Amino acid sequence: MKTVILFDTEFVMGPGPRELVRLGALKLEAETLKVLDTFDVLVKTERFNELPLSFVRLTGLTDQDLREKGVSFPDAWSKFVTFVEGYPCYSHSQAQAGTSVLLGDGAVLRENLMAHGLGGEFVKLEFHNLFPWFLEMYKKYGYIYSGNVSSGAITTFLGLPMPSGHEHQSLFDVYSVLAGLRFFKEKGEVLPF
Question: Taking 50 as the threshold, does the pLDDT of residue 98 lie above it?
Fold first, then answer.
């Protein structure tokens, strides 16, 4: 049985690297897309005394959430590596087709590792970007992509039932990607992993 990881990040933009605030993931059986396990961790910010209001509105996360439930980035990374168990990691990072995953979620993790002096840790995991595959599927089935379909908007774009929660919550976004994968799999498409 082949296993893969779907993951998504939420981060704060500011001067310097993007600072990770939430990391969500699903462990999946690759052929059936059955969910084997879930992962969701909040990360305490170090450069921001308060989360920007725009981020709070976008994600629903508050400073109190991070104070009460957040862990340090090194702890979050360690927990994620343990959860992943060396399986390949896939995210839906909006970038131009053919560009590196490092423009999206993988880059957020790498930037945080570098900021914590842990850059060498990045090679412990294998990262892939599903975004180019989704673009091909949209074209093949006549969906008009206008550049605004983030991971959490896939269900809306394809007219599928919404996961519980809301867009820009990592697990919601990952379940949205999963719904898109299942949708195209049911049409007979070969999955990208």
Answer: no
